[in-house]
Amino acid sequence: MALKMVIPKGKLYDKVEELLSEVGLTLVGNSRNYRPSLYGCDIEVKLLKSQNIPEMVALGQHDIGFAGMDWIIEQEADVDVLLDLGFNPVKLVSCIPEDWEWEEVRQRKIIVASEYKKISEDYLTKLGVPFKLLRAYGATEVFPPEDADMIIDNTSTGSTIRANRLKIVDTVIESSTQFIANKKVMSDPAKKKQIDDLLLLMRGVLNGRKRVLLEMNCSKDTIESVVKLLPAMRSPTVSELYNSDGFAIKAAIERKLTKDLIPQLISAGATDILETPIRKAL
C-alpha cells in the first residue's frame, strides 16, 4: 500500500517541493492543486492547510507530513517528530502596546488575543497573570489597544509587530517545520523502511546545503600548514599530484566558514582553490 503524505499549502509548499526534488522525487502540480503527483516513489500526496496537518497525521488519515512545531504543540498531536527541517523559523511572542509598561499591565486582569488557544493558556497560567483569552482568526496584531491588552502571535522578523506599534515582552516558544509520522505506521515494517529511506535522503540534502567541497593544491613544504586549517567532516583527502612534488587536497567544509578560511588557506600556501556545492552529505 502506498504511503500517504500531506504537504502544507501556501509558502511552505515551495520549500517542501525543493527538498523533495533534491532528494530525487518530482512533485507535479502546484499549491492550488490539492492532489499533486509525486514521481519516483510509491507515495500519494495531498495538500492541506498547515493547521490541519498534525491532527490528520495523528489520526492516521495520512502517514507522514510536514508541519510547524507550533501547531503540533497547539493541537497536542500525538505524532512522531522525525526531523527538524528548519524551514520558516518563527517565534511565538507575547506583545503589548509599545508605550505600555509590562510590569504595570500584569498587575490586573488582561484580555489576550491569539490563534493559539492551548499554548496561550499554558503560558499565561504559568505566568500567574489573570486573563481572558479571545480566539483570533487572523490579523491578531490589530486587536490592541482597543480590543485586547496583549497578543500572542508568531513572528519571523518582528516587522508587523513594530508596524502596529507593539513591542515584544516575552518569547513563548520557537517553532520551525518538522517532518512527522503517524505513530502506528512506524510499526509497519514495509512503510517504516520507506520512511527511513526518505528520512536518510532528506538528512543528506540538509547536511549538503550546509557544506561545500573545497579542492586545492599545495607543495610538500606547505601541506602541514594547509591541512591544519581544514575543519573537514572527518579528515581531508590528500593525494599526490601526477608527475609533481605537490599534493591535491579535498575537504567538505561548512559553507559559513569559507569566507574567512579561503584567505587563510592562500596565505598558508594553497593554490588552485575550487569551491563546489554539495547536493547530499551522508
Automatic annotation (TrEMBL):
InterPro entries: ATP_PRibTrfase_cat, ATP_PRibTrfase_HisG, HisG_C, N-reg_PII-like_a/b, N-reg_PII/ATP_PRibTrfase_C
Keywords (A to Z) from UniProt: Amino-acid biosynthesis, ATP-binding, Cytoplasm, Glycosyltransferase, Histidine biosynthesis, Magnesium, Metal-binding, Nucleotide-binding, Transferase
GO-annotated molecular function: glycosyltransferase activity
Primary localization: cytoplasm
Keyword ATP-binding in annotation: yes
Keyword check for Kinase: no
Pfam families: HisG, HisG_C
Enzyme Commission number(s): 2.4.2.17
Function field: Catalyzes the condensation of ATP and 5-phosphoribose 1-diphosphate to form N'-(5'-phosphoribosyl)-ATP (PR-ATP). Has a crucial role in the pathway because the rate of histidine biosynthesis seems to be controlled primarily by regulation of HisG enzymatic activity.
Annotated protein name in UniProt: ATP phosphoribosyltransferase
Gene source species: Kangiella japonica
Source species taxonomy: Bacteria, Pseudomonadati, Pseudomonadota, Gammaproteobacteria, Kangiellales
